[in-house]
Amino acid sequence: MELNVQMIACIALYVLSEKGREILTVIFLDDFGIFLGRKRNRFIVKKGKERRDFPADDVENIVCTSRGATLSTSALRLAVRHGVQVVFAMYSGWPYAVLMPTTVSGSVKTRREQFLAYVDERGFVLAKNFVMGKVKNQANVIKLMAKNRRQTNRSLAEDLYKSGRLIDEIHEKISEERGSNIDEKRLDLMNLEAEAARVYWRAIASVLPGDIAFNGRKTRGARDPFNVMLNFGYQAVLFPEVWKAICYAGLDPYAGFLHADRPGKPSLVLDLMEEFRQQVVDRALVGLLSKGVINPGEVLATGAEVEEGRVLSKKAVQLILEALFDRLNSPVMFKGRRGPLKSFIYTQSRCIARFLLGDSVTYEPFVLGW
User: Mind listing the domains of the chain with CATH numbers?
Assistant: First the structure.
């Protein structure tokens, strides 16, 4: 499979090609004056004199970050009917609205069990495994980077291996945690997670180009290139995918376990994202910078782009999205099954539901080897 980017003015169209056939996966609306409409069973995308038509069956997601795009209600109804998720996001990537059908799969019983699980051992088991999946993937991504640098930079490779093994030790500590209620153990789990994160991000910083000023992970208000890229990737690409998977599994996106409750906070989405951040976003973005696909000076918006409210440059957005959609569609092996990485987000959501309903004795986090 191969991912291409086609441009209609400032409309980014991410196309997955397989055996010569192009399958549109995402329509990304990222500039003023773009119109999304409908003609029968097709989406119409127009910008000025340019126009393209796309069969609704071939469209998976529509993401709109533009402040000046127009979307017809007819097109939105077509998206709902075909299960096309429509995401409205800020230029930074954070989604402020997601269009979903009023009826989704999953039974009410699943949500009832989800709420009950918060006060029994199931909540602790899920939270613990979310952290274990995150930390193990951190260790494996670092060890993979060490493996890839063994011939070119032995000293760096050795340091990375050491970091990976140190994170493995923290993973072992997490596996030994026992509890019957997540409220009693959340702080212990979060402290171990933070300990692993410090090692992980120091290791990541060591493989980035020297002119990238990355002094650690920062979410709100980040203005350094790599943190801005990470935030955009997590928010504009990974978050909507996990949100959709959670909802289609019949789960409540706001009733999480690892992340504490807070009004408007989609805690369960954030919980499940932990297993996929490293293998989807971190790995792809480190590759963009370390391979020189994008220069650090090209990442942040400048001039008129800043006046529009952008944080990332248009070029950076295009390259980031191309890399992340390519990664999501890359085939991987997990638990004896091979499939696109993205498919395992949906698998894991269903596994959460089965565990809550008692159809599985435990929940196993998503982890890729190195």
Answer: 2-89 (3.100.10.20), 108-357 (1.20.120.920)
